[in-house]
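User: For my dataset I need records formatted as: sequence, then structure tokens, nothing else. Please produce one.
Assistant:
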Amino acid sequence: MLYHDGHFHTALRTHARSRYPAERRSSDLQAIVLSPAGQTSTLSILFVGSGYAARMHSRVLSKHFPEVRRAYSSRSPDQAADLVRNFGGEQCVGGWRSALQTPGIDAVFVTTPPDTHLEIALGALGAGKHVIVEKPAFLDVDHFDQVREAAARASRMVLVAENYYYKPLLQRLRAIVASGELGEIRLIQINAVKHQRAEGWRADPARAGGGALFEGGIHWVSLMANLGLEIRSVQGFLPAVSPGPERSAVLVAEYREGGVGVLTHSWDIPSTFRGLRLSRIWGTQGSILFESNGLFVLRGGRRPRLWFPGLADIRGSRAMLGDFVRALRTGTSPKFTLEAARRDVALVRAAYAAGESPYGGERSVR
């Protein structure tokens, strides 16, 4: 089954549902009264925003972590009510500032457009709440510094929902690179070409923080930066097209270990077979070919081997939210840190600056 990204993942979910129990509903949570903060035996999360991201995370939480209580704050009461109806939880009446006063809320999950993340995160930290924020977490690296300082003052955590870090594909790639079986890594080629419409805030660089490379490509930049190799510098190249939000870009990364990586990212070009894209890693002693979404990993050479990293959680969302639930309950750091998210934004900003994008940043990565 080979599909464009949206259809691709839908088909994989259909396959997984044929093997796993149907999604459990948490409608009983509507009757739960949250107890004062710090006195709950379970975790209580307030979603600010009721769009696609809130729906996706709610689906995973209700299915795999039904003990996690959820409440929803949204400018659209109908959308919030729809989330409660489909996934359980409670609907908060009023704006996000008043919703922060809901008794028993432990963490705020920010799923609004990127240009609102900083204000809401700082407000939540000021109210003594932990924060989970969708990627891209903040528009600029200095925003991360502000949030880090606020989190330290409040003794609270800030977690960034970068699910690609948790993808089974990346875990397999990291293990292969770390094993040394490929020798010294020389070349990495990531194919992230597809056709995707950009509507609403995603079509507005001021709200999205940039074009396709920032909004969607940051996933792939994070993957490249978390292979177990350290990116030293990046360059960005943008096709000369009509004015408007950038929809295609090439990012070239130099690794401190000596290799070079190339990310080809686009929302303008239909991918082969409506979703299947092939990427590669070459080393001095071997190479691997893998489907960019994580369908398979193939090692060539004298002893070829084929892996299927994990269809049931191909997006990495379940592993990510499981790590977040653990971190919030135990007070220990998540696997994907705020500093890692800051680095990813710095890499995209540096690529934009090198590519002379109007929404670039400094040319150096710091």
